[in-house]
């Protein structure tokens, strides 16, 4: 586990900031302690007048329903209420939810607006409702589902070790995350080494924002093969698997020998590439010079910005930045909806950094003059943090080492170079690699498995 020394922050900021593992997004699990099983007993109550079911077992919630809502009173004293319509809409019985495709089978128009339970039972497997429909439809909801889907009010957030990230600075160079090519390409069946190695790679990409694959044969063909094993390659106007050098075959600085500051790629796509994968195939040096690779943890520097300059963090989280790719004949990329540099999930957790000064368009449309000034101050501050000795991790890639980057988090760049340099690689969609990781996690359960049963652990 990489634990980085505190960056050169002000004393005040030091107190409030600690690099290391921080929860950054939701997980499927919750602590078992809050839902220990018991010899819960089922009980029944007529619905109409608000009722309390007072089951004997202490670990089973109390349920009460009326014509519009169902209230769950948890053993820990907290209460949360559900609209009956919400519960009926989320029924996952075979009539409502296709058991194989995991898709909802009923449309909203068939749900009576006055739907309500006529009978309520609760036991350690969950809450069982019989509805006021003509067929006395029955629904059962695991307690874990109710705890997790609570919205009135929401209950504890579902973050655990699995979904936290490990923030890093320049000291990551002491022991950067890596996996072995031979494990990923393993064909042995028992234990499925390859699948577990791919999951280890994707977990490290999730935790650190990048990971090396060591000892990859330095050919385009075998690089494309190992990438394809990990996840399917995303096609763009650069093609699928690409090989590039300084020939300006594409109207982009990547196809030159210029240095490139820390940036994330494809900010000009509505859905920026999820993974950016590089393999330096050749750069004879000498006579060539330069061409080192730069990595910066955009989440780490965003965390610093939010600590040191919260107003700047807020502006970069709110003001939308146009981006474009216009340098190649026949390509005029410009997403119809610009996005801010920092994007957050519904729980306010940072999930994406979009940072590319070269491809940034004309800012300020719809902004106030103060916002224009404020944005430049904020952007300069973030740029300074990204360019600090503390944040920059420079590494000289060599043929044989593939670099897999979470392009939604970690920025990359390069130093200017001379000589003949050939780089290859590919993009993978964000949803695609996260899906691959979730499916492998489910298969191998290497990390804490959700205690939600099959049908209830999907669709969040
Ligand atoms: C990776 N490859 C050389 C194919 C394309 C590079 C695209 C670089 C572009 N400025 C961007 O940031 O998206
Ligand atoms: O050539 C390199 O090392 C990186 C090029 C780059 O930044 C890119 O392709 O986005």
From TrEMBL:
What cofactor requirement does the entry state?
Answer: L-ascorbate; Fe(2+)
Q: Where is the composition biased (Low complexity)?
A: 29-38
- Function statement: Converts trimethyllysine (TML) into hydroxytrimethyllysine (HTML).
- EC number(s) per entry: 1.14.11.8
User: Pfam families this protein is in?
Assistant: GBBH-like_N, TauD
Q: Which reaction does it catalyse?
A: N(6),N(6),N(6)-trimethyl-L-lysine + 2-oxoglutarate + O2 = (3S)-3-hydroxy-N(6),N(6),N(6)-trimethyl-L-lysine + succinate + CO2
Protein known as: trimethyllysine dioxygenase
User: Residues annotated as region Disordered?
Assistant: 29-75
In alphabetical order, the GO MF annotations are:
iron ion binding; trimethyllysine dioxygenase activity
Key word Iron present = yes
């Amino acid at each position: 586990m990489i634990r980085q020394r505190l960056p050169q922050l002000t004393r005040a900021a030091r107190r409030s900031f600690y690099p290391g593992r921080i929860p950054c997004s939701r997980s499927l699990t919750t602590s078992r302690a809050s839902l220990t099983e018991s010899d819960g007993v089922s009980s029944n109550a007529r619905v109409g007048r608000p009722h309390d079911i007072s089951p004997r077992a202490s670990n089973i919630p109390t349920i009460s329903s009326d014509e519009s809502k169902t209230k769950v009173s948890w053993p820990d004293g907290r209460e949360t209420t559900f609209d009956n319509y919400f519960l009926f809409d989320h029924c996952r019985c075979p009539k409502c939810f296709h058991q194989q495709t995991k898709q909802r089978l009923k449309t909203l128009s068939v749900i009576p607006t006055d739907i309500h339970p006529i009978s309520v039972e609760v036991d350690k497997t969950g809450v069982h409702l019989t509805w006021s429909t003509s067929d006395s439809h029955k629904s059962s909801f695991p307690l874990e589902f109710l705890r997790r889907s609570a919205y009135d009010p929401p209950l504890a957030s579902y973050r655990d070790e699995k979904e936290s990230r490990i923030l890093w600075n320049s000291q990551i160079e002491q022991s950067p995350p890596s996996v072995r090519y031979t494990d990923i390409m393993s064909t042995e069946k028992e234990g499925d080494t390859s699948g577990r190695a791919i999951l280890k790679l994707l977990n490290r990409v999730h935790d650190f924002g990048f990971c090396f694959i060591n000892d990859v044969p330095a050919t385009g063909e075998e690089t494309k093969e190992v990438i394809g094993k990990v996840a399917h390659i995303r096609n763009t106007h650069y093609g699928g698997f690409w090989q590039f050098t300084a020939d300006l075959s594409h109207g982009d600085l990547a196809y030159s020998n210029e240095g490139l500051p820390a940036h994330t790629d494809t900010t000009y796509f509505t859905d920026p590439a999820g993974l950016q994968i590089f393999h330096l195939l050749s750069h004879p040096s000498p006579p060539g010079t330069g061409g080192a690779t730069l990595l910066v943890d955009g989440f780490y520097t965003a965390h610093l910005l939010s600590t040191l300059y919260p107003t700047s963090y807020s502006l970069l989280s709110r003001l939308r930045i146009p981006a474009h790719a216009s340098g190649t004949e026949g390509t005029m990329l410009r997403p119809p909806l610009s996005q801010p540099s920092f994007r957050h999930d519904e729980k306010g957790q940072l999930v994406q950094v979009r940072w590319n000064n070269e491809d940034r368009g004309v800012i300020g449309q719809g902004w106030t003059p103060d916002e224009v000034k404020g944005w430049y101050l904020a952007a300069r501050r973030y740029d300074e943090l990204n360019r600090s000795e503390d944040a920059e991790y420079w590494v000289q890639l060599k043929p044989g080492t593939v670099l897999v980057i979470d392009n939604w988090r970690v920025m990359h760049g390069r130093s200017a170079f001379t000589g003949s340099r050939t780089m290859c690689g590919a993009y993978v969609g964000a949803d695609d690699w996260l899906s691959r990781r979730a499916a492998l996690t489910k298969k191998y359960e290497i990390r804490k498995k959700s205690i939600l049963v099959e049908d209830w652990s999907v669709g969040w």
